[in-house]
């Protein structure tokens, strides 16, 4: 299963609205994808937060990443980068299994530049850890004008770009999996080779 990471903990965010819209696109393409809402994840963050020792509440989210066929990361721009909660979540992901050969695509949300900066930062992080980055990124400028109160994308160009990305990312993940080059294939091979 693919997972959409709704990359902010802001209540009532456009990020979650866009994530739900993307989920509906995949459903129309015949694929169920699940949203990981970082606002929900935040509820599980309390006490001493130590990297490498995630709390029980965050562990199910991390397990979803480890089993995913691909990740769709939707990130707004906060102060020229990604939201802190998104970076915090990324920093808890198991190395190298969460990243290495994991297909990932990005949607940036912003005002003037459409979330270009956080997407470029995310590409650097995932690329450094050897993820397979789908090259067709989507940048939604003036996102507050692109989506209505019901979460429907009303901007025709934005809608077209999101649909095109989803169609391409489906083919991308299928091609990698079919050739045995995706993260799940590599993890399965490692388990077969592990001493018993």
From TrEMBL:
It holds the Pfam family FMN_red. One of its GO terms (cellular component) is cytosol. InterPro entries: Flavoprotein-like_sf, FMN_Rdtase-like_dom, NAD(P)H-dep_reductase. One of its GO terms (molecular function) is oxidoreductase activity. Residues 4-141 form the NADPH-dependent FMN reductase-like domain. SUPFAM superfamilies: Flavoproteins (SSF52218). PANTHER family: CHROMATE REDUCTASE, NAD(P)H-DEPENDENT FMN REDUCTASE LOT6. This is Flavoprotein.
């Amino acid at each position: 299963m693919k997972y959409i990471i709704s990359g902010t903990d802001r209540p009532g965010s456009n990020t979650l609205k866009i994530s739900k819209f993307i989920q509906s696109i995949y459903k129309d393409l015949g694929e169920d994808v699940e949203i990981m809402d970082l606002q929900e994840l935040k509820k599980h963050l309390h006490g001493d937060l130590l990297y490498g020792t995630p709390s029980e509440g965050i562990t199910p989210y991390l397990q979803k990443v480890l089993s995913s066929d691909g990740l769709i990361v939707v990130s707004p721009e906060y102060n020229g980068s990604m939201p802190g909660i998104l970076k915090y979540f990324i920093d808890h992901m198991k190395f190298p299994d969460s990243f290495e050969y994991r297909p990932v695509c990005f949607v940036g949300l912003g005002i003037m530049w459409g979330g270009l900066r956080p997407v470029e930062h995310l590409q650097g992080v995932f690329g450094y850890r050897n993820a397979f980055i789908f090259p067709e990124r989507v940048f939604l400028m003036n996102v507050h004008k692109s989506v209505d109160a019901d979460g429907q994308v009303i901007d025709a160009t934005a809608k077209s770009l999101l649909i095109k990305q989803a169609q391409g990312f489906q083919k991308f993940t299928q091609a990698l999996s079919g050739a045995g080059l995706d993260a799940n294939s590599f993890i399965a091979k490692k388990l077969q080779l592990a001493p018993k």
